[in-house]
Amino acid sequence: MTDASAAPEPASTDSSLEEDVHEQKAVRLAKRERLIEKRADAGGGAFPVGVPVTHTIPALRAEYGELEAGAETGVIVGVAGRVVFSRNTGKLCFATLQAGDGSRIQAMISLANVGEESLADWKEYVDLGDHVFVHGEVISSRRGELSIMADDWTIAAKAILPLPNAYSELSEEGRVRSRYLDLIVREQARNTVRARAAVNASLRSTFTSHDYLEVETPMLQVQHGGASARPFITHSNAFDTELYLRIAPELYLKRAVVGGIERVYEINRNFRNEGADSTHSPEFAMLEAYQAYGDYNQMAALTQELVQNAAIAVAGSTTVTWADGTEYELGGEWDRISMYESLSAASGRTVTPQDSVEDLIAFAQENDVDLPPQATHGKLVEELWEHFVKGDLVRPTFVMDFPVDTSPLVREHRSIAGVVEKWDLYIRGFELATGYSELVDPVIQRERFVEQAKLAARGDVEAMPVDEEFLRALEHGMPPSGGMGMGIDRLLMAITGLGIRETILFPLVK
């Protein structure tokens, strides 16, 4: 057995580990050259164009996983996988081949079945991390391990670098920067990818059951809008103009509603030039949906259904188990609380939509609450609410009825002066989704945009500009509508208990 095909011993220092990797790379590159020379005529070498796979490892495990120890099937297959374990003895070599989903099968390379030269080649050329094709009979070893007794084999792709140290897990930073290695060595990483796919499929299925249509809207926009956020700016050479990466698809989806697509949604990528932390990423996946003749109450019910169906798709139940072992219940009817009423109850001071900015600033300072930049009534109320209420939310909770000035795209409340019909959904202590009764009056919408423009002129980099094209669309008549938006990455966080960088397959890192 060569050193390169064994699990490396723990390195004492980073420098010694780097030296060991450098030495292994040199050895493997030399093997690559010899393989190319040896198999040039056969068209194989270290990276053949293909191998004659007849079965996958998961399919073989599903069909033959219960074979008794020592059983022979007489079934001949061709299978390929990555070598994650190798043990070479005199006349018999063993290797564990791993498929992309993490399922494994043993390959047995014996002198009697492949011959002396082929066995010697296996010992010389095969290392951990290589992709290998084996052809032979499906059997169960004497120890009861599902195996392929090979009569032929070939390297399908030579790994030039070794797999990570078998004696220590990748650090979080290492997992994020080298997700491909994370997927090879860690089951949780593979499960998260599959959970995300199951969530997206569930979301689409739920929307289809409610007669929604999925559409795509521009990611490059001449004017950013649809949310209060700082955009990324780029330049189009073709148009010789500045463009903005989408911060939200809202204004285009509402154009679709104006055009008669009365139930519409999009699962999209958004970009916000803001901070990154455990719940925020500059690039993230977002779901937005709009329903003509609906309101924020209907969108809350739809959102609850979307989340609960997604949990069932991943966990088989609305009771999910997080990565740390904690069970969390997403089932049942979720609580709905008023922002102003819950703030008043938690703070011991009655807070109303009519409170002045000066009074709210004084109240915030009394309680050591950081003042938001460009403080307005709404921003102060939301900061105070986060200080007094947010941390005590345990169950999934809709926080209802927000200040007007922080919600420029939302209809005023039908019965409560000074607030709008908006909710935020909190799960696990973070905001997962938001929903509106949409503002469809173009006159009021213009007034709101103008107020936002004034904030921008005073230095608020997150304020929305006046979008004349969107206002023109509203002037053609948009029916009363409900809308909602939900972070896909955060939905995975709520179901799995992971941080945002774990739920994104390839997150942005410096």
Strand line-up of the largest beta sheet:
6-10-11-18-17-16-15-14
Q: Roughly how many Å is the radius of gyration?
A: 29 Å
- Silhouette: elongated
Largest sheet: 8 strands, mixed
Keywords: Aminoacyl-tRNA synthetase, ATP-binding, Cytoplasm, Ligase, Magnesium, Metal-binding, Nucleotide-binding, Protein biosynthesis
GO cellular component, one term: cytosol
Pfam family, one: tRNA_anti-codon
Binding site for Mg(2+) 2: 431
Describe the structure.
With 510 residues, the protein is α+β, with helices and mostly antiparallel strands. The chain is 35% helix and 25% strand. The protein has helices spanning 14-38, 57-64, 111-114, 116-125, 172-177, 179-185, 187-209, 250-258, 296-315, 339-347, 357-366, 377-388, 442-457, 468-475, 488-496, 500-503, and strands at 72-88, 92-98, 104-110, 131-140, 146-157, 213-214, 220-221, 233-236, 241-245, 263-271, 283-292, 319-321, 327-329, 335-338, 397-403, 419-427, 430-437, 481-487. An 8-stranded mixed beta sheet has the order 6-10-11-18-17-16-15-14, with helices on both faces. Strand 1 (72-88) and strand 2 form a beta hairpin. Helix 7 crosses helix 9 and helix 10 (339-347) packs across helix 12 (377-388). The chain starts with 13 loop residues before the first helix and ends in a 7-residue tail after the last helix. The relative contact order is 0.10.
